Amino acid sequence: MSRAVILPAPGGFAEIDEDRTVLDRLIAQIREAGCDDVTVLTRPGTDRPVKATQLPSADADADLAHLGEIAFSGDGPLFVACADLVASQTTVAAVLSDSSRRSGVLVGGDDPSAAPVQVERGLVTGPGPGPTRLGGLAKVSAAHLARLERHWPRQTQGDAFDGVLAALHARAVPVNAYRTPGLEHRQAATGDEAREVIAAFEAVDMDAWRLRNAVKHDDDFFATYAVSTWSPKLVKLSARLGWTPTPITWVSITLAVAAAGIFATGWSWWYVAAAALMYFSFVFDCVDGQLARYTQNFSSFGGWLDMMADRSKEFLIYAGLAAGAVAGGTPRPPHGGSPSPPWPPRPSGTPPTPGTPCSSTPPWSARPAGASPRRPRAAPRTSANASAPPPSRSWAPTARSCTGPSGPSSPPSASAGSSSPSPPSPSAPRSRSPRSCAGSSSRSRTRPRAARSGPSRPGPRPCAAPTGPRTATTGRSPASPRAPASAAT
């Protein structure tokens, strides 16, 4: 249940008529907006009776204490107003009829004596220079009261109204800015000033003003120029018929379901009708909010239904389009295979004809004349051929032939005319022979890549003739800078 607390102000007891003050008028407006629990804080010595509960309060700190007791003693939002506020019923209802979970404060530019605030993207960010002024009416939602319960202020440098706003900003609570452009409101100090403000907003055509301000002026491009240009006529018709915003929301949901069902049947000329239904669904989605603002008829269920319907309709339309794309797409090939190519396959072994596309058939076996033969791939090593000796390898150097057995090199025999080397002594260590053959200084040799069939051959590449005398202990040439190789296992 909502509660309203009216803070004391000097102009609250200014007389508008013979039997009505500014405070009496404000109490009646709050109750007409739907809040019956009204409490008025008065300073000691005030003996003027009011039609609400009165609590004496000594100063601003005592006002904060009373506000805390009332705010945390029940459920629902808390409305805080200043006793000297003079505004239209539409302005008061713009704050008190908000059933959302947001907190906010009434702002405007009609009262130069009020405290200035900064407003960015519809939120009051704090005090600061600017044309926007506080309006003397604020709302603190029940959700934000729970956050302020342990951090409620006990002292304030200004009045209690500024202390409540400072507490909201201290707890990083977003404060919405309630505006009623075109309707003047002010905190009056005298009766003449109050009557002047009342005469200013009573001269406004309230029906035309509500209809004009029911449309959002900061909406997107499509809604502004394709919907809001003629949707106010539907708003007035719905208000005359006595419709509420909730049935309008159900009409929008029904049109979206019908459009998604047509989309799901696949491509046809009925898609034009589905697009029209989707457009009118969006139109009625805008009309329900405009009707709520025009008639000041807000409800928690209506706001929740509108929010859920917006997202549900979007996903429903996407699902219908996806189902229609599957239903009207290319049929799948039989037996789960791939579609056949648009050309006949070429027989194996036949070269392609110039100008014809290549098919997915294997390449022909015949190779063009003069092409180099392909290198055969090495056979994989298996348990069957693991014990077989590796194949021999030959090189074709430019200077002289350096061919030899696949085993490690051995020292030459004692006779100079012998063409084959003698077998090495078992005790002599085996070592690598130098790469140069017969003392030749040229190391450039042409080695065509031969076919490999197995792992690389162990051991060095021997030459036909030694390059010099070998020592008796190491078996390598004294001029060779290389270290002796380790014994082969």
**What overall form do the CA principal axes indicate?**
elongated
Helices, by number, come to 12
Topology as a string of helices (H) and strands (E)? EHEEHEEHEEEEHHEEHHHHHHHEE
User: What is the name of the CATH superfamily of the domain at 3-204?
Assistant: Spore Coat Polysaccharide Biosynthesis Protein SpsA, Chain A
Could you give the count of β-strands? 13
What's the overall average pLDDT, rounded? 76
Could you tell me how far the N terminus lies from the C terminus, measured between alpha carbons in angstroms?
97 Å
In terms of DSSP E residues, the strand content is: 5-15%
In CATH terms, what is the fold-level topology of the domain at 3-204? Spore Coat Polysaccharide Biosynthesis Protein SpsA, Chain A
Largest sheet: 7 strands, mixed
* Share in helix: 25-40%
* SS-based class: alpha/beta
Low-confidence stretches: 359-366, 394-420, 431-446, 470-489
For the record, what CATH class of the domain at 3-204 applies? Alpha Beta
Radius of gyration: 48 Å
CATH architecture of the domain at 3-204: Alpha-Beta Complex
Strand order of the largest sheet: 3-2-1-4-9-6-10
Structural summary, described in words:
It is built from 12 helices and 13 strands. With 489 residues, the chain is of the alpha/beta class. The model is unreliable at 359-366, 394-420, 431-446 and 470-489 (pLDDT under 50). A hairpin with a 2-residue loop joins strand 7 and strand 8 (123-127). Among the domains are: 3-204, Spore Coat Polysaccharide Biosynthesis Protein SpsA, Chain A (Alpha-Beta Complex), CATH 3.90.550.10; 208-326, CDP-alcohol phosphotransferase transmembrane (TM) domain (Four Helix Bundle (Hemerythrin (Met), subunit A), Up-down Bundle), CATH 1.20.120. A 7-stranded mixed β-sheet has the order 3-2-1-4-9-6-10, sandwiched between helices. Strands 5-11 form a two-stranded antiparallel sheet.
